[in-house]
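Summary of Year 1 activities. Much of the first year was spent building the evaluation harness for sequence design. The harness presents a backbone, in tokenized form, and records the residue chosen at every position. We chose the following record to illustrate the format because it has been used consistently in internal testing since the harness was completed.
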């Protein structure tokens, strides 16, 4: 059932992403066929197969005027996203959270992604027409994310009310919501029926280990291509690889959270760095360098960034051995995987 849950959520996320617009070319019947399949598939979920612990989290209510006061021009796409949620998406969802640096206001202009967490109602899943309406609104919502960051490598994060009934922390660790903001009035509290997902976190680590291992051996990072082109070793295609490179760095910076999840410990991203940097200090340099790029991006680049060239100053900070260093970090994590961290 755990793999069934993961497979369904991946398929739902794919279906709601605007990159699936090509499906509409073949006609409405194709889109409806997939919607019907999701509709019927979710009826087979069975949360009673898992032991769960209830975890309650309360996010801050989002105040649009207060939020925009920080920087009304730069943050205007967030206002557009908020309006989209209220004017179009709200009938189909029960929760919508803004989290990460855009919620805590320690974002870096032009670099920080817009991180969201959307909970889809069971009734929406059980009505194909409703699901197809939501799909159209989700495509519009993604445009606002791209206005903030043209290099945004992920869309909105979707879960369903079914997922909350047997929730794996690997999707999003519950402590994230301590620093989140709720777009929907009355939707500040979220209740997770948390199930064990350590095995899935370990599998995710091994999957990333294999990805980096293959990149190191082949010289090609075969994930998140841009117009059919993957990131290559030692800046071989630096003239057309910033989108790919940013995803690569983002994946590297997510490793501490995944590592801690594999130990059954759940932390906000910033806290995960503090927990991991000492025990992984021999391989931690790539995290520090990626953080430095994030810090310097607003002062070194035009916002919004309109190129796909990896800037020379970024290359200087990260250095040419990024595949080697990323593999060394994940390899060290797997070696330490069974060593409990001290409180």
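For this record, the design step produced the sequence shown next.
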């Amino acid at each position: 059932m755990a793999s069934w849950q993961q497979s369904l959520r991946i398929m739902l996320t794919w279906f709601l992403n605007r990159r699936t617009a090509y499906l509409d070319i073949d006609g409405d019947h194709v889109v409806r066929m997939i919607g019907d399949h999701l509709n019927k598939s979710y009826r087979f979920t069975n949360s009673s197969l898992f032991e769960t612990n209830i975890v309650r989290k309360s996010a801050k209510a989002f105040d649009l005027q207060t939020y925009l006061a920080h920087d009304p021009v730069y943050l205007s796409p967030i206002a557009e996203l908020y309006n989209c949620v209220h004017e179009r998406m709200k009938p189909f969802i029960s929760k919508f959270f803004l989290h990460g640096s855009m919620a805590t206001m320690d974002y870096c202009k032009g670099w920080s992604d817009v991180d969201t967490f959307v909970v889809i109602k069971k009734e929406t899943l059980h009505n194909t027409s409703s699901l197809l309406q939501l799909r159209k609104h989700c495509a519009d919502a993604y445009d606002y994310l791209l206005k903030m960051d043209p290099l945004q490598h992920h869309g909105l994060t979707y879960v369903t009310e079914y997922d909350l009934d047997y929730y794996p922390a690997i999707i999003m660790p519950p402590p994230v919501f301590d620093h989140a903001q709720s777009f929907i009035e009355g939707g500040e509290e979220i209740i997770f029926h948390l199930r064990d997902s350590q095995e899935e976190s370990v599998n995710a680590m091994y999957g990333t280990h294999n990805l980096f291992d293959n990149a190191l051996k082949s010289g090609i990072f075969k994930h998140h291509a841009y117009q059919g082109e993957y990131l290559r070793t030692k800046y071989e295609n630096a003239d057309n690889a910033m989108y790919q490179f940013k995803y690569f760095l983002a994946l590297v910076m997510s490793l501490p959270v995944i590592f801690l999840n594999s130990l059954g410990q759940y932390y906000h991203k910033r806290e995960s760095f503090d927990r991991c940097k000492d025990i992984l200090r021999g391989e931690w340099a790539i995290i520090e360098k990626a953080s430095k790029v994030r810090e310097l991006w607003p002062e070194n680049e035009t916002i919004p960034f309109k190129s796909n060239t990896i800037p020379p100053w970024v290359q200087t900070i990260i250095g040419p051995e990024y595949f080697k260093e990323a593999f060394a970090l994940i390899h060290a994590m797997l070696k330490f995987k069974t060593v409990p961290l001290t409180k």
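Strands lie at 53-58, 60-61, 93-99, 115-120, 158-160, 167-168, 181-182, 189-195, 220-226, 229-232. Quantitative recovery figures across the full test set are reported in Table 2.
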